[in-house]
């Protein structure tokens, strides 16, 4: 992290701190205050969008750990969200468990299923691993549809979350709940990648053969990446079904798994801020295109207007792959460098 001129670290704890300066603390406090005050001035529609973005951020953090840091590409992330969502829904609706007791079970269950489908990573990688995770998407959804306890094709009604008698029945209260989990997931992901485990993930991503030569248990860390990534997916899936108050397989379509990977591309793989920026950018793009639907229907055929959201997201992903493969996180880094060095250019400073 680049610091303003005249600020230096005096010990290891200061050097490892995420928030290092008083200005950064003030900006963070102002952002959190604005974030949790936003339900007072946002409409129901905007609150719904914000809640979905928060849930998506949690899921993309998990995929970023698995794919962005460990290099294990997964195209079945939505199915692991389904595992967490259905486990939480079954425990709360069928067995009367409180939401905050069912949520850890949902996360653990999704992580264990991720371990199972991560086993092929010992022998395969690249395209073949992609196909294995695609198979996981369809296998998990098929199993859910066949089970009686899940409601099968009809789905499952789930209750609202509650704690100590307080029920999260309004969108404002659920927004605060989701944002707390989004912030916690960001902190966990940020600190995880700075540990020995995170460094092992990066070594495996860069060159798994060299990592094994250095003594890293490649297979063990790959499985750990699958487990951690799917734990995040399980939490986000549980939050999603309790927000909708209904669990059904259409919530966890294969196309969603593709878009989660696209969010990493747009935001920047291997970056915590990139996972957030990518999720926010593509979700807002989707909402913008949806709002433009009536206007586009008057200009082009109705079928083309209906597919405009898919086309727009696809074009954005292609443009980022060509012109900015490091994503929005790299652009954000350039902006911060420009501000910290202004009025001098980077070339002059170097």
What's the arrangement of strands in the largest beta sheet?
1-4
Mass-distribution shape: globular
Q: Which series of helices and strands comes N to C? A: HHHHHHEEEHHHHEHHHHHHH
Q: What's the pLDDT, averaged over the residues?
A: 87
Beta-strand content estimate: under 5%
Number of domains: 2
Distance between the termini: 17 Å
Unreliable residue runs:
none
Q: Helix- and strand-based class?
A: mainly alpha
Number of helices: 17
Helix content: over 70%
Describe this structure as you would to a colleague.
The chain is an all-alpha fold. It has two domains: 41-252, no CATH class; 255-350, no CATH class. The protein is 72% helix and 2% strand. The chain is built from 17 helices and four strands. The protein has helices at 12-16, 22-37, 44-69, 77-93, 99-118, 127-146, 171-192, 196-206, 208-213, 218-244, 254-267, 272-291, 293-299, 302-306, 308-323, 327-341, 346-349, and strands at residues 156-157, 162-163, 166-167, 246-247. The strands form two sheets. Strands 1-4 form a two-stranded antiparallel sheet. A hairpin with a 2-residue loop joins strand 2 (162-163) and strand 3 (166-167). Helix 3 packs across helix 8 (196-206), helix 3 (44-69) crosses helix 12 and helix 12 (272-291) packs antiparallel against helix 15. The radius of gyration is 21 Å and the shape is globular.
């Amino acid at each position: 992290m680049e610091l303003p001129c005249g600020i230096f670290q005096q010990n290891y704890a200061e050097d490892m701190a995420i928030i290092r300066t008083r200005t950064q603390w003030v900006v963070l406090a102002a952002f959190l205050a604005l974030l949790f005050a936003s339900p007072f001035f946002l409409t129901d529609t905007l609150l719904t969008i914000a809640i979905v973005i928060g849930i998506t951020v949690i899921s993309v953090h998990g995929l970023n750990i698995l794919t962005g840091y460990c290099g294990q590409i997964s195209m079945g992330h939505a199915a692991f969200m389904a595992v967490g969502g259905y486990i939480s829904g079954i425990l709360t609706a069928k067995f009367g468990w409180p939401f905050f007791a069912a949520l850890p079970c949902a996360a653990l269950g999704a992580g264990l299923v991720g371990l199972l489908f991560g086993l092929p990573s010992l022998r395969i990688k690249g395209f073949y691993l992609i196909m294995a995770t695609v198979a996981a998407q369809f296998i998990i959804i098929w199993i859910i549809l066949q089970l009686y306890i899940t409601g099968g094709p009809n789905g499952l009604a789930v209750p609202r979350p509650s704690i100590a008698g307080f029920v999260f029945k309004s969108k404002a209260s659920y927004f605060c709940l989701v944002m707390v989990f989004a912030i916690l997931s960001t902190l966990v992901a940020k600190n995880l990648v700075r540990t020995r485990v995170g460094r092992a993930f990066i070594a495996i991503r860069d060159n798994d053969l060299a990592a094994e030569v250095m003594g890293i248990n490649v297979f063990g860390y790959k499985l750990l990446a699958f487990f951690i990534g799917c734990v995040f997916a399980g939490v986000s899936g549980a939050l999603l079904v309790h927000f909708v108050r209904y669990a059904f397989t259409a919530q966890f379509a294969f196309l969603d798994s593709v878009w989660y990977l696209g969010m990493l591309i747009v935001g920047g793989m291997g970056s915590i801020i990139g996972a957030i920026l990518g999720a926010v950018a593509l979700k807002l793009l989707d909402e913008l295109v949806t709002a433009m639907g009536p206007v586009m229907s008057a200009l082009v055929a109705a079928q083309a207007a209906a597919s405009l959201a898919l086309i727009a997201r696809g074009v954005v992903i292609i443009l980022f792959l060509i012109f900015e493969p490091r994503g929005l996180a790299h652009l954000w880094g350039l902006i911060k460098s420009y501000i910290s060095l202004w009025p001098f250019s980077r070339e002059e400073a170097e």
